[in-house]
Structure formats: structure tokens, C-alpha cells
Request: fold
Amino acid sequence: MNTSAFGRSKETPALLSGSDRGAPALVQRVQRLSPLWLALPACLVLFIFGIGLLDLLLWSLRSSGSLGAEALGPVGLQTYARILSDPLYLGALGATLRLSAVSTIASLVLGLPIAYWIVRTPSARVRATLIMLVAVPFMTSLIVRLYALMLVLGNTGLVNRVLHGLGILPENDFLPLIRNETSVAIGLTYFVLPFVIFTLAGGFRRFDRTLEEAAQSLGADEVITFFRVTLPLLAPGVLAAGTLAFVLAGTAFATPLLLGGSAVRMIANVIYDQAMFAQNLPVAAALSAVALVFTLSCLMLAGRLGRRAHA
Amino acid sequence: MRNHRGLIARVRLRLCLATVWTLRGSAFVLLFAPILLVMLQSFNGTSYTRIPPSSWSLRWYWNILAREEFAQSFVTSLTVAAIVTPLSVVIGTLAAYGLWKRPFSGARAAQSLMMSPILLPLVVTGLSLLVLFNRVHLRDGLLGIVVAHVIITFPYCFRAVLAALERYDRQLDEAASSLRARPWTTFRHVTLPMVRPGVFAGALFAFVMSFDDFATTIFLISPERKTLPIAIYQYMEFNLDPTVSAVSTLLVVLATVSVLLIEKFIGMDRFVGLRA
Amino acid sequence: MKNSVLPSVSTPGPVLELDRVAIGYGREPVVSDVSFVVAAGEFVTLLGPSGSGKTSLLRAIAGFVPVTNGDIRLQGRPMAGVPPYERDIAVVFQNYALFPHMTVVQNLAFGPRTLGLPKAEIARRAQQVLRQVRLEAFGDRYPHELSGGQQQRVAIARALAMQPALLLLDEPMSNLDARLRAQMRIELIDLLKSLSVTAISVTHDQDEALAMSDRIVVMAEGGVRQIGTPGEIYQRPIDPFVAGFVGDANVIRATCRGEVHEGLARFDTEWGHPLHVRGCTLRADDAGLLLVRPEAITLPAGASGMPADAQAVEPNGDLNQLLGVFKSRAYMGATSEIRVTLHGEELLVRLPASHDRHDLVPGDSVCIQWDAAAVRAIRR
Reply:
């Protein structure tokens, strides 16, 4: 049997001291540092982001001014008072909340059956196909999708042509499905639907199938089981998806821009207009702050509700 | 009594199933009908939209090459995405590894912080960067767009790599350490190969998100420098011909290819977080 | 009696010294005040139930966990602040932790490669350890293509390829089935001894500890209970915990009444029955615990015709005798485990199955006996 002398390796005496293989001391010192230092580049990027945000929020405390020019007026909350009392801005905020709510509900209703299918199908192939089918629109540029939707909803678009062809609408009449809140609502639902489906599917994955089996062994059929057992337990997933949808729809920019024309203005459009065209940076900044508060409070609320549901 | 109850239950079940399948069908119609229509339109022979097309042609695809703004903006988008993707991957991967390696009490909060650029509204990000760049007199449009895109894409890389790390067996790192491998060696030869799918997923996501971005970029473009989505939008404002459909179809093809690649290399279900 | 805190082998210096090591903070530290020494070539086992701190101690020796007090010295060198990759150790993990994306040979070569050894030497070492664990044909397989036992051997080989000063094993047998476990114990010890490897192993399996170790460190609740050779631990446990954890033990409360003969002491149980104990250190009026191993108790043949009433039966010189009630029997194949109750206590008796008294039924009076030298008396 081999009887090499362990414990005192003759080949590599340098092993026993601190410097492995003669690596420079600096390299060693660096490697002993906390791995948190690796997050430094990310922190730098976030820092830039944070500074920009701060700068913008500082602008919201002034009265008027535009990009490249001086900020004027006293430092205070007067701009906030202005936007929260002006019916123009309030109207935009109202439209934002209204449209987000509608598209959230619509996307949940449409998304839930598909998410359920994705999670429940026994065939991995079907699951992969479904996910890919949902992913392709997801990965397609939003502009493309919105343009495509315009082709469908437009006055000479698919819907109207079909209605004409079927004789439901007379030749000169058309269903106004573009440049109004309806089209924006449909567009927002379209935009948000893939996010909702994936989030719902992720939330459903943790569901314990044996609970359904228990319910069915107690005499409940599929429908009762679904509404009494499955759905309440899926509530956290639905909440997460709904929050995401609400936040995404509420801060949407391109969708109302393309589908709403000048008739529909959501908060993101007002921010853009005020900053780029009306040269009114403080108002844009104040509205941005409102949008931030909206987003953060939705996320925090959802987090808190989610935690309570699990308690 | 039992028959009666059975009948109601069965009818109810049928109704529910019918509703479910109707909803599924509607959802897929919503997702795909517009896209399919656009692809159909791109081959339209005439310059006005007519459904179904009366003639077929490839001229709109040739038109893309003829229109300078499309070619130029495509190059810009590609350049930006090509620069942004490796940057985001490195930044996101290092951050994910750094936060994961040694657990600490504020880890949850730190993770949310890393994700914040995509949790907050993109328009706000765009505007705040515009204000910042203005203040530091950043004239170069390309650099500004690159910085903006890194900010809004590295969180995806971070999340993808973090998800992969959370599935990774920490003891493998300890094993490497016990075999005298210094931290960098362990990372390079043991950890990284095991989380490579996550890195790749993050990279692809970053590329697509950078290429597709509209809401943030629109604050930072200039007449000489714009990305493809913005060029499309501007073209759409004045022109109604199917050239847009042709460009759109190409982008749909790009999306489809990406999805197929992800499915082949990582599995789409794992990519969207649906499989352990 | 000798308690082997220090090894009996004289060596050029211990491989490992633990000096009042403590791990963890707060009111219940994970490990508190552990000291012992491991000499070259020894196989020491840290034995204890879960929560005893044995795994934390092993991880601290490896460098994965910081020590909050005390010192760890590896070959005389203090390990405070030294990361794992700078310590001359190698670890065999409980779940083996084989690199899934590398073949067996690549796994084995990983360590020597990080050491910067020349290519020829790396290959030689990999082949050498592959032979030592008898997996020569499996070099190009991936870990997931191997059985549990084969994976374990690769894990051991990978550690041995490092030729470490100290080998650390974290519950190496726990993922093997019982039959394989018994076989691997012998194989592993033979291999380590042939290579003169110094090793520390962690386990909760007392059979493994007794079979493999040169010395055992019995731990509980973060502290060391006893250190000794397997024989010392089993035959002279220091307290009821050790007696009960390593093997089974019957515990009888008794008070010492002083010496009866030369070396023979008398104890009175709580119910007044006298028992003789040889070689104890307690003195008269000391409160004590008498530990008797089940296999030391016998049922005398032909004990029928015992008086029905449970009168105290006097010890006869070195032979202790007690009268009890037969409660139950468990047939274990090679042995029978019999439970006998007396005065509220229940004693476990383990006999070779051939010596069993099959005529006994529950409720029968039965006489049990054991030798005075088979008792261990400890202070209460």
C-alpha cells in the first residue's frame, strides 16, 4: 500500500505559510475583503439614478422654469398646491386611476385562465409552448404592438372591416375604437397582460395540489373546489399580479400616446408635455413626484396585504 | 333530489368550462391578432391599409433600406444595446454575487434597491436623467442613452443572476474553498459555470429591453440620435404606409428568435421563474 | 482513572490544538469552552446529538465559521483570521458537494490545480487517489451518473488528493444505507491508516464512532462531556448522558455505604436493596448513580423456585442479584431485549437469543444478576 507521508508534504512546503503560490500580497488582501464591494458598480449606477431623481424633485419645489434655464420662484410646495387644485391635472390623474383600474381587472380576468393552464397542464411541451406564445408579444417592442393594435382598432381597421363585412354596421359608419378611453383601456390591457400572466403563474406554482384533492374527497366538485379552496389560496398571487398591472398601467406613456391621441392624457403624458413642450419643469417634476408616491404606496400596500394574508 | 343537484352541478361545470375557454381564446386573440395582422400588412402591395390586402409585395421591406432614418436608428439601437448589454451583465452579476455571497440583515432591502430603476415609472427615470445630463452639460446623445439604458436594464440581469444563485448549492463554494481555491478562482471555475444560464437570460433580457425601450429614451433623443422604436413612432406620425408594418415584422422576428434561443439554452419556464 | 485528553502517541507536535474554543454569541452560544488536541495519524470523532455544536466546531476548524473565543492552532500555527483556502485542511462534506459540471477526474484534479502543481503531478495524484478508492473505471463519469456510495468515495478521494495535514469529515456515512455504511467504515479507516492521515469526523452514530475512532470527543449542548478511547467511553462513562448516548445504560440511584471487602464497596438503592460495586471512587454517604450495561445483566438458568414475595436477595460477593417482574421481550434476531420492572424502575436486559428464558411471561417473577465489576459508579 502506498505510504506517502501525509501531514508534511515535501513537494510544496510553501503551502503551510500564508502566501499561496507566491501570489502578491495585495491580491490576497483584496480577496479577503467583504464581497459586498462587488456591488459597488451597481451602487454607482444607482447613485447616478438617485442624483437625477433628487435633482428632479428639487425642481418640484420651485414655481417655474425650464430645462437649461434658471429655476424661479420661492422654494416651497406651491407647485404641488397648483397641480392638485387644477382641474386639468386632476382630470389626468382621474383618467389615470380609472384606466389603470379597468385594465388591471381586464388583464386579471383574461390572464388567470391562461396562467392556470400554464401551471396545471401535465405536459411540459404544452407548458413550454404556452409560455413561448405569451413571451413573443412580451419581447416585441411596445411600439410595434401598439401600432398593431391601431391597425385592429382603427376606423379602417380589422374590427370595423369585419363589422362592415358582416353587415352589422352601415358603410359610412364606424365604431370609434381609436383615440378614446376605450382604445387606451384595451391597449393598457394588452400591454400589461404578459406581465400579469407570468406573475400569476409564478404565484400559482407554490400552490399545494393536495388541498384540492382533500376538498374533492370531501365531496366538492371542480367548480366548488376552485372557488372555495383554490381561489382564496391563490389570492396572494393575484394580489401581486394586480399590483404590478396597476402600477405598470398607471405609469404607462407610449400606450396613451399612440392610442389616445390628444383626447386621452395619462399622468406620464402630462409629465412629458409639461417638461418638453410647455417648458414647465416644476410642474413636470411635481407630477413625477406624485407618480413616484403612487408607485411606492401601491407596492408597499401590496407588500403589507400580502404579508397579512400569510399570517 | 340527488338528480336535481347533479344536473345543476353539471350545467354549472359546463358553463364554467365554457367561460374559461372563451377567456383563454380571447386572451390569445388579443395577444396575437394585432401582431399577425401587422405581419400580413407588411406584404401589402398597395400603400394604404386594406384588409385583406388586394395585392402582395415586398416593396416595403426594400423601403426600409431606402429610408435613412430606419437604417440609422437601427444601427443606433443595435450599438446602444451592444454596449449596454455587457455593462449591465457585469454590473448586475457582480451585484447579485456580492449580495448573495455573505448573507446580511439588510439583504432584502438592498435587493429592492437594486430593482428600483424598473419599479419606478420609466418616464420619471427618463426625465430625471434629462435634467441631470443637462446640469452636467452632457452633450453626447449616445452616452446619455447608454447610461439611461444601463440604469433600466441592469436590474434584470441582477434579478436573473440572483435567482440562479438562490438555486445554487452554497456548499459547492465551501468545497472549492476547502480545496484551497481563493474566492476569485471559486467564482470563475465553480460558481459562474453553474449560474451561467441566469447570466445568459439576464443578458438577453437586457438586450431586448434596451432595444425596445421607448418611454425613457424619448427624453434623451436628439434629431441626429434616435433609436428604432422612436424612429418608428416619428415615421408613423406622418406616414401611413405599411413600411412600419415591415419594420414591425422584423422586430417580431427578432422577438421570436430570442424566445426560441432562450427556450433552447435555458428553458423558457425557468427564464420567467416558473421552474426551480 | 486515565482520561485521554492528551493522546497517548508521542509525536513531533500535535496536528490540531483547540484551546478553550467558543463559537456564537449571546446567552446560548453554539459551542463553549472546548479544548482538546489531535496528534498526527489519529482518527478523532466528535460524537453527539444534533444541536451539540459538533458540526459548528468542525466548520470552525475548517474556517467557515468564526471563533468568538479561544484559539485553534493547526500544526502550531494560529488560525485566527485565516480563511479556509489558506488552511492546510480538506473537507469531506455530508452531501459530498461534488462539482456537477466536472467529471470525476476533474473534481479530483481541482485541488492540485489550485495548488499550482505541475500538470504531470496533478494527473498522477488524481489517478493515485482514484485507485485508492477503487474507482479507476469511473474517471470520466459525471457525479450525477454515480451511485451514492461512489459519490462518497469520490468526495473522499478529492480530499485526499490534497494530501492535507488534517482531514475533516462531516457525517460522512449519513447518506449511505445501513449495509453500505458498515462496509465503508472499515474501508475508510483502512485507507486513512495506510496513508497515515490525521482526521476529525463528526457523527451522531455511536456505532460509527466506536468502530472507527482512536479517540472520541462526546459533546452535548455546545460543551465537551468526555474525551477518551472507545473502550474508555463505553466502559467508564463519566455521566449518565454519555452512558446513555453511547450504548444503552440502566441507571440506578444509590448511596454508598463504604467498603465491604478489599476494593468492593456496598451501595444501598433507594428502596434499600444492597448492591456491590468493585473499583469505585465514592466514599461512605456519597450519593451516586450506578450504571449497568444491559448486556452485563444475566438471567440465571434454573431460577425457578424463587420465593414469590419480592424479598431483597443479598449480593453474593461479586455477584449482584435482584428480584423483579418480567415485563416484555423484544426478539432482535441475535439478541433478545427483556424489560424487567422492580420498585418503579425499569431495567433493560440484553441477552444472546439462545440464553433467553422462553418460559417467562409478563408478570412472572424473575431474578437478574450482574457482576460487581460491571457496574460503574459515578457521583450524583
